[in-house]
Design brief:
Layout lengths: L1 H16 L21 E9 L3 E10 L6 E2 L10 E4 L3 E6 L15 E5 L18 E6 L2
Antiparallel strand pairs: 1-2, 1-4, 3-7, 5-6, 5-7
């Protein structure tokens, strides 16, 4: 009888300590982890709430790198999410370095979990032309 109690206790302790499996996001793209190999990932969609055309872009994680968006993404992003461990600076310019003349700013920081609807996050809906990403500290 004591042996059964020990086995049950071990089983319950193991079940509680076991890591939970990753839960897929509402947009059907499985949760990812940062690999620390010099690249990260950003999920973009052309419509709010992870609708329209979506992609997961592998991007360099370096302060001197710039990801310039091409069609259909250039100035057409309504959902933006870096993976956990990545922070991105989105820009209105198409080269991350244009001189800013906008009174509302020309770049913004976005971290996980990002924004399902960029229209709720200031003037960033359909205005992103490029971005730079780095590991978050």
């Amino acid at each position: 009888m004591k042996f059964q109690q020990v086995l049950i206790t071990l089983f319950v302790a193991t079940a509680i300590a076991a890591p939970s499996s990753p839960v897929s996001s509402e947009r059907g793209i499985a949760a990812r982890q940062l690999a620390w190999n010099g690249t990260g990932e950003v999920i973009l969609c052309t419509e709010a709430n992870w609708k329209g055309e979506c992609t997961a872009l592998t991007v360099p994680l370096a302060y001197d790198s710039c990801t310039t968006l091409d069609a259909p993404w250039a100035y057409n992003v309504s959902s933006f999410e870096p993976i956990p461990g990545v922070v991105c600076w989105v820009n209105r310019s198409n080269n991350c370095t244009d001189l800013c003349r906008s009174p509302s700013g020309c770049n913004e920081i976005i971290e996980f979990p990002g924004y399902a609807d960029l229209s709720t996050y200031g003037p960033w809906n359909n205005t992103i032309g490029s971005f730079t990403c780095n590991p978050s500290s």
